[in-house]
């Protein structure tokens, strides 16, 4: 998911969505990867902890 996806669903700005997503990354709930100009977020699974 992207900040735009989250912002659209929640009815908030992309900046607000980015802040919330980055907080979840900091808490270990989500992971993120930059692909070109887009940052993609996804849910962390136990199997990802080996990365």
Give a summary of the structure in a few sentences.
The protein is α+β, with helices and mostly antiparallel strands and 51 residues long. It has one domain (3-44). It is 41% helix and 24% strand.
What does this 3D model show about the protein?
- By secondary structure, the protein is α+β, with helices and mostly antiparallel strands.
- The chain has one domain (3-44).
- The chain contains 2 helices and 2 strands.
- Strands 1-2 form a two-stranded antiparallel ribbon.
- Helix 1 (3-10) crosses helix 2.
- The two termini are 20 Å apart.
Give the fraction of residues assigned to helices. Answer: 40-55%
Strands of the widest sheet, in order across it, are: 1-2
- Secondary-structure element order, as H and E? HHEE
- Terminal-residue CA separation: 20 Å
Give the helix/strand layout:
Blueprint: H1 3-10, H2 14-26, E1 30-35, E2 38-43
Helix pairs in contact: 1-2
InterPro entries: WH-like_DNA-bd_sf, WH_DNA-bd_sf
Short key terms for the protein model shown above:
single chain, 51 residues, alpha+beta, two-stranded antiparallel ribbon, globular
